[in-house]
Amino acid sequence: xxxxxxxxxxxxxxxxxxxxxxxxxxxxxxxxxxxxxxxxxxxxxxxxxxxxxxxxxxxxxxxxxxxxxxxxxxxxxxxxxxxxxxxxxxxxxxxxxxxxxxxxxxxxxxxxxxxxxxxxxxxxxxxxxxxxxxxxxxxxxxxxxxxxxxxxxxxxxxxxxxxxxxxxxxxxxxxxxxxxxxxxxxxxxxxxxxxxxxxxxxxxxxxxxxxxxxxxxxxxxxxxxxxxxxxxxxxxxxxxxxxxxxxxxxxxxxxxxxxxxxxxxxxxxxxxxxxxxxxxxxxxxxxxxxxxxxxxxxxxxxxxxxxxxxxxxxxxxxxxxxxxxxxxxxxxxxxxxxxxxxxxxxxxxxxxxxxxxxxxxxxxxxxxxxxxxxxxxxxxxxxxxxxxxxxxxxxxxxxxxxxxxxxxxxxxxxxxxxxxxxxxxxxxxxxxxxxxxxxxxxxxxxxxxx
Length: 450
Hints:
Layout: H1 2-5, H2 9-22, H3 27-37, H4 43-58, H5 60-70, H6 80-95, H7 100-113, H8 120-132, H9 145-151, H10 156-166, H11 168-178, E1 184-188, H12 195-204, E2 208-211, E3 218-222, H13 231-234, E4 238-240, H14 243-252, E5 259-262, H15 269-277, E6 283-288, H16 291-304, E7 309-313, E8 326-332, H17 347-350, H18 356-371, E9 374-384, H19 393-402, E10 406-408, E11 428-431, H20 433-436, E12 441-448
Parallel strand pairs: 5-6, 5-8, 6-7, 8-9
Antiparallel strand pairs: 1-3, 1-4, 2-3, 9-12, 10-12, 11-12
Helix pairs in contact: 2-3, 2-4, 2-6, 4-6, 5-6, 6-7, 6-8, 7-8, 9-10, 10-11, 14-15
């Protein structure tokens, strides 16, 4: 028991970082597992581990630039354990309120934990120099894509793409926003409660709550350790969902009693919101290709008191010979996820842009299939959580060109009154995260002609 109490949070953080970087592991799943395995850690230490891991990943390109500036052995040649320890130490020194000496000393100790005692001097030397020379880090020339890539830790190919799309200043603002720690956004379950009641209940539980800006039933939470332990969660009074996703459902505009299909539904948030807007009355078929995700959606629906969802295993790109037609179909397609980097910092390290063409092919297959499920007069909404024109605007153009039976529909009335969106009349919107405070997102709405 004594041993469990003496868990070193810095060691857990380094362990997580090493796994994420060497085993292609997802940061949220790795963190969750390691925190569960070390459940005796106090809440403050759990938060410390989470901050180090997510913060290091968010700033990894810059951190490696710092290490490579002061170390003769470059990061790609370092032992994975030592690299994880040193990366996390630089994050603590440069981005957290941790004394440089504490970050250095603890890193040197950790070097010895895994049998690298002979390299303690190396770790100590590099980190002490990095601490002393914080204000002397050479960066690429300002005004270049290379500068944004290093200063904001975004891959160069992505920065170049965004500069081409949005211009240099806008690209820099997106990168800066991506590097902020996200809060948690939830949607009030209107089948069971209202915003005022839920807010009061959460505040009594010590959670900081503020209203959403885009969706009337959105709340932003801070000071939340483990949402699933909250009574309000267990009673099914909310589900976690970004305001961008809530807006996609608002633009779908589901009505009570209608028949609706959510073609790529997992993890279920949009289906849950759809069911709540429909007052749990009508037909809602929620599909996903993976069996285990169907089970998770069914559990979520049960917790929220949603009985109308029919969850089924289905490949959204695969045509069925005979099938029913729906009033509304939602395609929130699998995508490169480039709008989620604030919440999933490992995305920026695991994507190289090469998968975009294959994703575009899948997205078009799904859209092609989706067209056949929409009734005449019905609505099709296509959305992604990425900022990539090939996956967004270009797919919309392609679909409308190949499906003259559909037309884009003005979405101005679904947007906040103070938003000035030139493309809304053409049936689509791109949510730039620094402007909307949401994930980066694309939403388009089309209607099938009668």
